[in-house]
Specification:
This protein is mainly alpha-helical. It contains eight helices and two strands; from the N terminus they run H-H-H-H-H-H-E-E-H-H. Keywords: Signal.
């Protein structure tokens, strides 16, 4: 009886906090979509000024690189605070475009592991509710796993293994990976690897005597 009472003493405040959270978060979450749109716009503007072909000694180009890094870091901080209060933007509430914008912002700081862990946690909840694309979760989860030295759960990340070949970063049990990919509607690991390598060979490693495929037109 005492154990049951103690359990309810713990659970009741948690239930109350869960019920109160949406009301408390509502004022700062109302402009979630607009905030995300501004973040994407700021990053695109900064990225448009970067000269990726400039030599290292070009001070103007270096300043633009630094500005882009600052904008992306600020965006990650802002999205992190919003996720802490509002969760991942919901397609049914903030809109599909807001969810896409959040994904674009999340990808800007791929090497910020603390931020990426937060992204994966929030995407897990959103996908469970049907409010975010499962492919976004798969990609974010695998990118984080690769950076942390863990095997991929979905097989979305490849690395160059030869002059004209790419192969997967370490994978979880292959049968389980294939099952997860099937649930997401993704092709088999072998089909995906074959498609990637065919594209690489076509664009960058033509057969001897064959003209290289020109891209960027």
């Amino acid at each position: 009886m005492m154990a049951s009472r103690r359990r309810w003493q713990v659970l009741v405040p948690l239930f109350a906090a869960a019920l109160a959270a949406p009301a408390l978060a509502a004022p700062q979450c109302a402009a979630y979509a607009q905030e995300l749109a501004l973040m994407v716009e700021a990053a695109e503007a900064a990225r448009g000024r970067v000269d990726y072909l400039a030599p290292p000694e070009d001070r103007v180009a270096a300043a633009h690189h630094d500005r882009l890094a600052l904008v992306e870091r600020d965006n990650a901080d802002r999205l992190g605070r919003l996720m802490a209060s509002c969760g991942w933007p919901r397609a049914s509430v903030e809109g599909v475009q807001a969810a896409r914008d959040a994904w674009l912002v999340a990808r800007q700081r791929e090497h910020d592991l603390a931020f990426q862990r937060q992204v994966v946690r929030q995407l897990e909840l959103a996908v469970l509710d049907g409010e975010a694309p499962a492919l976004h979760l798969a990609t974010a989860s695998d990118r984080l796993a690769v950076q942390e030295g863990r095997p991929q759960r979905y097989g979305t990340q490849l690395r160059q293994s030869g002059a004209c070949t790419w192969d997967y970063h370490p994978l979880d049990d292959v049968a389980r990976v294939e099952a997860r990919r099937q649930r997401l509607g993704l092709p088999s690991l072998e089909s995906h690897r074959h498609a990637i390598n065919a594209m690489i060979i076509s664009e960058h490693c033509p057969a001897p005597g064959a003209p290289a495929t020109r891209t960027g037109r």
